[in-house]
Amino acid sequence: MSCASESIEPARRKSVFLPLVVLLLTSACGSDEASNPGGDQPFAFGAADEASLMTTVRSLTARGMNGRRTGTDGAQQAATLIVAALGNCPGVEPVTGQSFRIEASSDSLPAAWSTPVVNIAARWPGSGELADEVILVSAHYDHLGPTADGTSYYPGAVDNAGGVAALLSLACSVPTGSGGDAPRRSIVFTFFDAEEAGLIGSKAWVGDPPFPLDAISTQLNLDGYGAPLFEHMGDGLVFGPDLSADLAEEISSVNESHGAYRMMPVGHEVLEGRSDQAPFQQVGIVAVHLATGIPPGVYHTPADTADGLDPAVLSAATDWTGMLALRMALRVTRPALIDPPRAPYATVETYDAIIGNLENYPEDLLGPTPTPEDQEALASALFVARAILDSWLDKVPETDEEWESFTETMAVVAAPFAALLL
Ligand SMILES: [Zn+2]
């Protein structure tokens, strides 16, 4: 995931414009179609346990795993940990053969690539005539390995030990029972290798799939998972509901039913496909990226440690993810793909137009001599404001009236984040 941020105009005016924002949020929350029967869930994952989640994170980020770079002993240790945990999970089975390990075939890897790539997958089988359809819930387990000088290593806690911990927790808390005690579709929990090397593991899966790709009705990919977006803000981001109104509707329902945690919808282009959902999106599969947030300054640094995660956020996001996975598994119909993505989600070009109009604004907020910390905090705040606007901005402002309205909305959206951080 990228922490790149760009300047967007932050707050000047606040509560007087709140009704406008409320209106925008309300109107952006999906269609008026009848809710899917998947809403009456006869199943539920067990609540994610904070202590067990963090035990997994601490194991994966320990010095002995040395950053889990693909092909190293540390990555093999991580794979062994995951496979051993799955072996103790009731209710899940290997996707193919007897092993949870799926070694990528050489012809599914880049020509110059010589390192073994080991994806890991476990299936909770569905029941009935849709049991061959799959909800793929994924997280990459590899990371960057040791630092160049060998004196330290990249623990990769939020990127992506937290996602792995969430996935293992879900895989090991599927409801067990007899007969038809399973959702319609199967849920396949997949741990990708070699994400950091360029999505090599997920591309190999798509290039040589262990089961037909058209069986996958939805993919939920976890990356950047376990830390709050900001210190005082618990909600996360889901990148990609612009690709499916059906999925966007289910996300909205989970936000309502979870209550304590939400994933804010953001266009799939915002992170430019920098995680393992991208290869699946490219072949037309409805796929989204779930991220809770990455603390400022830790992305791809040795500072991405387990201490940067918030166990309550990790637990709540895991429960939220499980709820969405179940809703997708229980739907009567597959979520339809929208091509091209629907209008309310702005494009990268839209941002550039907006940012070009507002680029001087941060100086007003930060004053003439901002500290680097202030600038970083503001950049993070504006990144999220931008992400929110991506979902809720109807179109690029053109007239003076539209620009005024946009600026007022922007002020309200950005204000809480900037105020919290500065
Ligand atoms: Zn990364």
Polypeptide structure, described:
There is one protein chain. This protein is an alpha/beta fold and about 425 residues long. The chain folds into two domains: about 15-30 and about 345-420, no CATH class; about 35-330, Aminopeptidase, CATH 3.40.630.10. It contains twelve helices and nine strands. The protein has helices spanning about 20-25, 50-60, 75-85, 155-170, 200-205, 245-260, 280, 310-330, 350-360, 360-365, 370-390, 400-420, and strands spanning about 95, 100-105, 120-125, 135-140, 185-190, 215-220, 235-240, 265, 285-290. Strands 1, 2, 3, 4, 5, 6, 7, 8 and 9 form a nine-stranded mixed beta sheet that branches. Helix 6 (about 245-260) links the parallel strand 7 and strand 8 (about 265). Helix 2 packs across helix 8 and helix 11 (about 370-390) crosses helix 12. The radius of gyration is 21 Å and the shape is globular. The two termini are about 25 Å apart. Mean pLDDT is about 80; it is low at about 1-40 and about 355-360. The protein binds zinc ion (ZN). Zinc ion binds next to loops.
Keywords:
422 residues; alpha/beta; Aminopeptidase; nine-stranded mixed β-sheet; 12 helices; 9 strands; 37% helix; binds zinc ion
Topology:
Layout: H1 18-27, H2 50-60, H3 73-87, E1 93-94, E2 101-103, E3 118-124, E4 134-140, H4 157-171, E5 186-192, H5 200-207, E6 216-222, E7 236-239, H6 245-258, E8 263-266, H7 278-282, E9 287-291, H8 311-330, H9 348-358, H10 361-366, H11 372-392, H12 400-421
Helix pairs in contact: 2-4, 2-8, 4-8, 6-8, 11-12
The structure holds zinc ion (ZN).
